Amino acid sequence: MNGTYFLSLLIFSPLLGMILLAFAPKTQERTVKLLGFLSTLPPLLLSLFAFWQYLRGYRLEHLAEKHDWVRFTDFPFLTESTYLVRYELNIDGFSLVMIVLTSLLATLAAAASIHIKKEWKGYFQLFLLLEIGMLGVFAAGNMILFFIFLEMTLIPMFFLVGKWGGFDRERAAYSYLLYNGIGSAILLIVIVVLFARTGTSNLELLNEMLHNPVAQAQLIAPLSEELRLWLFVALFIAFGIKLPIVPFHRWMLHVHVEAPPSIVMLHAGVLLKIGAYGLIRFGIGLFPDQFRHFAFWIAVLGVINLLYGAFLAFVQEEFKMVLAYSSVSHMGIILIGLGALNEAGIQGAIFQAVSHGLIAAFLFLLVSILYERTNTTTIGRLGGLAKVMPLTAGCLLAGAMASLGLPGMSGFISEFTAFLGLFQTKPVVAAIGTLGIIMTAVYMLRAVLNMTFGPSMRNDVQALDMSTIEAIPVFILLALIVSVGVYPYMLAKPLQAAIEMMMNGLGG
User: What are phi and psi of 236, to 5 degrees?
Assistant: First the structure.
């Protein structure tokens, strides 16, 4: 734990699995799937060990890594000085929680990948590359390294959707690549401008140089208030596409419906949360004044997301589309919490990122089980599940309760805290937003009750319930959802220091 390369080992440990898979016979389905699953265990064990040590008082600053990496000299858009980009990794309580979430969902998604029917070797190699990118995003100590890891997630995700997805998989893959490519291009412009004006991409140094009057003397060129405003708007759009914020959400609907359910577990559970992470880490961290200036409109956008997603989820007949619009709606709660600009709101936003990650992964894990047996996710054709698949039907009902915010589950804690923060600062906006919470109960119960107790329209009335291998990840996720709901301090403690630092930056 005190070693210099602990974070690098955590991030790149799936590489070993990729190497082993390269030598595995591609026709040995069971061997390849077992190797793919086992390759996700090292980052999970390392992240859980780091989390346990942190709860016992270990200082995460000791894990920081910094090595010289790339040197720029005599670039025309810079000065004659030499610019050094470093390989920098460091984490705090917030990023540690996201790393644990990522490694956990990757392992469970690998277990759910037993239903993949073809080219298992290529699938798991791309899967592990995607995991490396996701882990690196949350451990990056500077914006350039963050961008590199972020781009590392795009290519494997594109192929995982485009090759192993559903009927319209190619359209979904290109839609994903186009929208996220635009977001990444906007983010790159912000990074280049900041690097050219400050000479660094290190997050701590950027924070110091942008906010400390003494450190501002070190700026290569001044950052006017107008430029800061435009940089914040660009950041907000870049991460708003990835979150996504309405109207940048269409690509996400295609991915949720067409991607393999095991990949949607990572997409909904982790990749969407990179947008929230970026808004918090860079939006609030680097541009707190600009964030405060737009706080009202951010909260309004959150309410729009919440209501828009909820109303459209209500009219869907395809369960995957219900969950897709539900994700749009629940991302609005993150914006609502951030728009509150107080400790309760920001804590609620982070809780919502983690809670929705667990709940969305849980529901799409159940979708993979249902689709494997019935070859459909149309609500009308899945009626009567309670008779033929009682365990799966019961878990679906539990997932619906978690999604609508039943007390005792993680959804309640995140939604209650986010709205508590918004009611303290913008009560009218918060009151309107509560309609979305009511609609969540309506569309989730409508879909799940029709699937579990509605009339059956299928011929496969003898569908088997989930197996033991399938039930293990299902009940692990359900246990975590309940644990966070019953004992939220398990998340609040590691997040406390990070939230206090954000509030200091906002002047709270």
Answer: -65, -40
